Amino acid sequence: MNFWRKLAALLTGSNDPFDCAEEDCPPGRRVDDAEFAMALIGLGAKMAKADGEVSREEVDAFAQVFRAPPGFEAPLARAFNLAKQTTLGFDGYARRLAKRFRHHPAVLEDVLDGLFHIAKADGRVTQREEAYLQAVAEIFGFDDQGFERIKYTHIAAPDDDPYVILGVSRSASDAEIKAAYRAIASQNHPDRLIARGAPAEMQRIADEKMAVINAAYAAVMQARGARPRRLEAQTG
């Protein structure tokens, strides 16, 4: 699913429709393209507002991950400025995306990664910003452990705990840890993001995220006395 290029098509008014995937919608039904685009832009704008003040850094971060095609920056800016006035209504936007991509959790995680990028833009993630992110993640279908896993690939884990980054408990077996690593590494590999048509900044975020995931896996296996095989080869 070429999610990010489809967003660009929506902003340009392309005739290439964002049709429902077969498993997502009844036969013959299509999503409302304008509603979809506004849901994504709205979530990003309200993320910037979550701590009460929209900073220049947050606006710039939004533009990096939700980039408009050349010549269409003005429509995106108008939508952003409208949505950033308040965080009210963010849950409705999140539910629209959750419903649309319920069979594509990797896309929903991409969106969360973009929101974390905005939250971190001014140098820290506040409690109100984290509460916003967790609320969105819950609507997207991520449980507490899933949210913690995503969160700690963006901010430092407590006591540098690598298990939380892999989304497993300390009592997990080596086989369970390897399976968890392979699953999240495959889903978050930058090549997969490129295939989804993500902009360059999102690809940079994916590179940094994969480095954290790889380091966590290596640390866990080293602590257990096991030497992980070449990490990137397992992301297939």
Structure explained in plain terms:
The chain has 236 residues and is an all-alpha fold. The protein has two domains: 1-142, no CATH class; 145-236, Helix Hairpins (Orthogonal Bundle). Helices cover 62% and strands 0% of the residues. The protein has twelve helices and no strands. It has helices at residues 3-12, 33-49, 56-65, 73-83, 90-100, 105-120, 127-140, 144-151, 162-166, 174-188, 190-195, 200-223. The longest helix is centred in the C-terminal third of the chain and has 24 residues, at 200-223. It is elongated. The protein starts with a helix and ends in a 13-residue tail after the last helix.
Name the structural class.
mainly alpha
Radius of gyration: 18 Å
Number of strands: 0
Q: What percent strand?
A: under 5%
**Count of folded domains:** 2
Properties at a glance:
mainly alpha, 12 helices
Write the layout of secondary structure elements.
Blueprint: H1 3-12, H2 33-49, H3 56-65, H4 73-83, H5 90-100, H6 105-120, H7 127-140, H8 144-151, H9 162-166, H10 174-188, H11 190-195, H12 200-223
Helix pairs in contact: 2-4, 2-5, 2-6, 3-6, 5-7, 6-7, 10-12
State the gist of this model.
The chain folds into two domains: 1-142, no CATH class; 145-236, Helix Hairpins (Orthogonal Bundle). α2 packs across α4 (73-83), α3 runs antiparallel to α6 (105-120) and α6 runs antiparallel to α7 (127-140).
